[in-house]
Amino acid sequence: MLETWFVQIAFLLPGIVGALALLARQIAGDSVTRLPTIVHGHPLENLVLGIVTYVSVASLVPLALLLLARTGQGPASLGLGRPRWRQDWLAGAGLALSGFAALFLMALLLAPFLIGHKSLVLQMSVGAVPKYYIAYGIALAAITAVTEETLVSGYLLTRLEQLGWNPRRALLLSLALRTSYHIYYGLGFLLTVPLGYLLTRSFQKHRRLNRPIVAHFLYDAVLLTIGVLWHR
Description:
Distance between the termini: 49 Å
Number of helices: 8
Radius of gyration: 18 Å
Strand content: under 5%
Number of domains: 1
Order of helices and strands: HHHHHHHH
Number of strands: 0
Mean pLDDT: 87
Largest sheet: none
């Protein structure tokens, strides 16, 4: 139990602190974009450095996989490996499409409230960047998908099952942790719940970590690509 919480705290604490900092900056009226500016005036160098620095987000993934392997849960038992076309890519695409449909429906239902309380929904744009920054969005989506699904689905759900948690209770905790580092959206963090639910249930039902990873990647990659192209 102690190991599980240590891993989750090490993963979540930087993300939650960073999300709070972004939220504070946005409330204060500062301009915040999703793509960091590390080198001013050099967009290509900035893109490369941005990808390299973001890789650190995945630093706990090897540790989580090692800890699971030491107790007999190797990558194969988690459904982690080379994605298969039908079982992972097609199924993952279906999950991503379901996520977009749920997002659209939830946005429609919440629209009357959100429109009347715009200050409670904070948005972080991609910013005006060259089209080739789509590569940054794809890299960001891949790193995020592998990291979040490995730690919040593969590792956490496996450990909670071993600790005797029932699936519903584990699902609620997983969703709470998933949404915790999206609070920089303000009340907009609620829109992240449908996809989180679908990804968590997919792993609980099928035990194929590849599938939620593919779905999460496709979902984020589409949104980030639209964000880059929209500002052209």
